[in-house]
Model the fold of this input.
Amino acid sequence: MGAPGENLKVNGDRLWDSLMEMAKIGPGVAGGNNRQTLTDEDAEGRALFQTWCEEVGCTMGLDTMGNMFATYPGTDPDALPVYMGSHLDTQPTGGKYDGVLGVLGGLEVLRSIKDLGIKTKHPIVVTNWTNEEGTRYAPAMLSSGVFAGVHSQDWAYDREDAEGKKFGDELARIGWRGDEDVGARKMHAMFELHIEQGPILEAEGKDIGVVTHGQGLSWTQVTIEGKDAHTGSTPMPMRKNAGLGMARILDKVDEIAYSHAPHAVGAAGHIDVYPNSRNVIPGKVVFTVDFRSPELSVIEDMEARLKVEGQKIADDMGLTISFEKVGGFDPVKFDEGCVTAVRNAAERLGYSHTNIISGAGHDACWINQVAPTAMIMCPCVDGLSHNEAEEISKEWAAAGTDVLLHAVLETAEIVE
Done:
């Protein structure tokens, strides 16, 4: 029941072909993907993934949040499974690899295990977590959060998209609401393979990122209300410009994040302006401020300063303002045993590696609360992600999946 030999590797060409085949579903307009959660395209991607899993000999489980669990049997039916996985949903202008590499890399691990006739004591499961991105339905990592007991299912089902469509209704509509209770599964461990979504690995020439920690995240939705008015005929002193109030607050967001350099970051990526007409002064804006840091005290400071500075700006301009925390999680320290398994795998395979802190949120951040968890990262070109130009190499994808294979086999215990 030792560790796998260093000559054991996945089929990189087959992995790449699977990534390209999945990318045909929900194509973007500039070479990437638009396969947002609970859309018809999401349903199509799920069906393809299930077909591939069943071809390997997996049984597919589906819980009431739409999380998919493809189980490959172990020799001990009482042993807790070792999990792998990530997500198949994308941003509206997403790339072909964010999340998808972790799901299809897990599938490739199972394909390789089957090809090589390897048996493990523990069953091995590949998971597709629903709505990791949080674009259509906030917050991000919604279904893994319900699995971990962070959110209630009723609350998740009531999340609405921009058109007022509820998560629970759309999950049923696309036909991927299962019967299995969320969170009922127990895990021996979980590993998530993901592209870095940052520039560190490529810049340092490293093949593998051994993820030791995850940044904490805070999403605060800010609503400012002023007064709609004609841009041409309203004197400057008489305006209540909600858009201008937002601009001044966003300048403060930048200042607040810079005050905690180099690890803290902050910006607003989601912005709605009303009525959004060329010749109407905005009477209302809704935007979400995204603060991140590996230190909880820093996140709390940034949240507090946003409210103080935002309220002052609104008061000075005669605007009304409200703040609602719509997502977030504390900084994460991944399991030392799982992290060591990842590091050992990279060293056994001869891949260069470095410890790294994940700057993005991932399903592994929530699962780490209920099971030993770790992440593996591979480089991405120029650190670009959440963009249709997101790119990785076939070699990077294969190296990350090789490490996943070795870490999982070591943890699932090979049976000689």
Q: What stands out?
A: The two ends are 6 Å apart (CA to CA). Residues 137 and 161 are 5 Å apart (CA to CA). The chain has a mean pLDDT of 97. The longest helix spans residues 296-317.
